[in-house]
Prior knowledge:
Elements (H helix, E strand, L loop, with lengths): L19 E4 L4 E4 L9 E2 L3 E4 L3 H4 L10 E3 L11 E5 L1 E2 L2 H4 L3 E3 L5 E2 L3 E6 L5 H10 L2 H7 L6 E2 L2 H5 L2 E4 L2 H40 L17 E4 H4 E4 L9 E2 L4 E4 L1 H6 L4 E3 L7 E2 L16 E4 L1 E2 L7 E5 L5 E4 L3 E6 L7 H6 L2 H7 L9 E2 L2 H5 L2 E4 L3 H39 L2
Parallel strand pairs: 4-9, 16-22, 17-21
Antiparallel strand pairs: 1-12, 2-10, 3-5, 4-5, 6-8, 6-10, 7-11, 13-25, 14-23, 15-18, 19-21, 19-23, 20-24
Amino acid sequence: MLVPKLRFKREDGTDYPEWNKDKWLSLGNFVSSGTLSKSDLSDTGTPCILYGELYTKYGEVAHTIYSKTSAEVHTFSQADDVILPKSGETPEDISTATCIPFDSISLGGDLIVFRHNEKVIGRYLSYLISNRTKNAIASIAQGKSVVHINEKSLSNIVLPYPVIEEQQKIADFLSALDEVIIQSEAEVRNLEQQKKSAMQKIFSQELRFKREDGTDYSEWSNKRFANAFTPLNNNTFSRDMLSENGTVLNIHYGDILVRFGEVCDIQTMDIPKVNTDIDTSRFDELQNGDIVLADTAEDETVGKAIEIYHIGTSKVVSGLHTMACRPTDKYAPKYMGYYINSPTYHNQLLPFMQGIKVTSIGRRNIADTVVYYPYGIEEQQKIADFLSALDEAISYAKQELNKWKELKKGLLQQMFV
């Protein structure tokens, strides 16, 4: 029997009929997509969707259209069309669908466009395809570095579906859940923007804290980086020399760029360890307050840094493509971690960045940058505490967002057959 674990009922409390199933092509027709590309985008014009945006901007339903085009030739959507990308980097990438609830959206190239018949509704199809049909689509994808699917290969995939009324209830419920997720994502973005703005104003000294009695603190001091920090020895261990076992933690540049914030709490972060058969004695062990910068990245994030915090008894070393250094003076905990990642400091690095596909920066260049800081520890601590409070708010908002996403994931597993 085609019956999911979790089902809606009719208004009178009775069950809906057993689900049906049909080949994809029995539920509508594939229609031609457009030819728009990134070069056709503009600030004004006709709302449009490009295939690459399905990976980065859209979920199962396109609640908002983000791009516009001034192109004169269009292939337009009809309300409730379902679109999929024809190509992607992995089979999982292209196993995703988006329902367009609007007429007259200009469609880009490299899209599969499905226009359903009276048996199904677009939002239901999109949720079904993006979640319970992913494996079937991934199994027919072809290619290596770039994978592809086409309309013909999708035509024979069998899709289950209930009566329209039950489809509508499923789609309405999941859309309402999506709205909560969208609001949660907006809250995270808003808090992150508040923090970014605060860091800009604080470290440019546009915004200053005051003493408890309301009087001003002294003017800030500054030093060349080379005078503010002493360089430490780092290793060049690759990922295959790291594991979950071992006793020495290793700060890898990739983790600085992607996983860690401005302050790395050694006791709470999941940090890879150096394999037990590797000698680390010739590398400096890090201490609280040490700064570790990533000297290589794919873009201008090179120079992103962490401050080591709450190290306890852990042994920690600095790894591949990093620059580790130790402050020559005492600063309030977390202050330097936030300052080194602020636009005020990072903008000094931009002229020294080199490379095309991979961007890097050298120690000599960093040595000539200037570090600014409040003269007294008290103002430094107020800055660190304020930004830490924002970080805690962001962390909590992200946790709540993840809870909603996990709830949706669990429900999707039970709502489809």
